[in-house]
Amino acid sequence: MKWLIATIGKPRLAHARLATEDYLARAARFTPIETAALRAGSAAEEGHALLERTAGCHRLLLDERGESLTSAEFARMIDQLEQRSTRRVAVLIGGADGHTPETRAQADRVISLSSLTLQHELALVVVLEQIYRAYSILRGTPYHRE
Prior knowledge:
By secondary structure, the chain is of the alpha/beta class.
């Protein structure tokens, strides 16, 4: 399964860029992950760009009002997608104004990383870490502890 993480805006914070690079490198041993930084605009323009860039993918939209999952549940979701032979999964990270209802309606699943609103660069780091953690759980590596 291949991953696409589509965000609005490029990471500008040095620590977020470094963490993004770190988790992309770690996760590469389990699964290919591509990131795409899209241009900021109105929420409608951003939603259109996110949907256009992720066409044909199973879409996981990040929203603080979405379904809350534990890391183990997130890993099970990934396992189920792999069992169904899902080829591409896209994670949609909105801009400062979040996602429009129209964009949310096009998602296959709306999930929350936190009930707090996260800045998009931090959301990118958190979702990459959780993808790495999920594959670590599925492969039985010692990264995740319960």
